[in-house]
């Protein structure tokens, strides 16, 4: 079951829809994802169970669904978006390459499909250490007002010459740290700024338009295993594909529940806080995004997030 948020072009009202795997849409009685979580909580039900029960009781709520023409909005406007880093072997290897003096190359341990695998170096770096540590790297990423919408723009930093998308599975969490659902995320990174000094990571990761989520939230279901899902990213310029790669969520070194638990350790959040879980596929250097590029990120069971670079 997916949750999408759309603008009804006839009434100009925002609607929250439940979309079945057969692409049958139902208009829900709430208009935001936090309101859905609150309604489920009031009935002591998991979000998916609450939605399924409501649909069974309200079959008349079905509405036409035209995926190609719907005005799809952000599926949720989170007060805060956070991100985890160095959660895949590919990320550790790539970031170690950034700070390593060695120029040798080898074969990455990661089984990512696509170009740009970079081997880890013999000298441990801060990225090697955090990859092996119990505590993950977590950092603040964005707010709702800074997010790019599905089908909308993500923005380049004006002071960076090396910027790439990082396709990620995103957790959508309740205020008490439970995983309510999953969405796709596009996390832009200015790798030349991070390369200059790891202390510049906030500037390399956080700016207006540096990420996007969507197009839907896949409600958490005990019968589904997100580690079985595949993430695929492609970048096109002037309608020509420049790069494409894919990886399995199962290549995560850390569990998604552990990442969520660390985020909530000694902290408080509103319903719907989002947590990017890291990436395993990044375009190899010297690639950099340019204005007008198209980024497609597809995750099984969620859908395809499309953004245009500005």
From TrEMBL:
What keyword terms does UniProt attach to this protein? Metal-binding
Question: Which residues does the UniProt record annotate as the domain Fumarylacetoacetase-like C-terminal?
Answer: 134-309
Instruction: From the record, give the transmembrane residue ranges.
Output: none
Q: Which Gene Ontology molecular-function terms are recorded?
A: catalytic activity; metal ion binding
Q: Which InterPro entries match?
A: FAH, Fumarylacetoacetase-like_C, Fumarylacetoacetase_C_sf
Q: Does the keyword Metal-binding apply?
A: yes
What Pfam families would the database entry show? FAA_hydrolase
Biological process GO terms, please?
Answer: small molecule metabolic process
Question: What family is this?
Answer: Belongs to the FAH family.
Q: What name appears for this protein in its UniProt entry?
A: 2-dehydro-3-deoxy-D-arabinonate dehydratase
Q: What is the lineage of its organism?
A: Bacteria, Bacillati, Bacillota, Bacilli, Bacillales
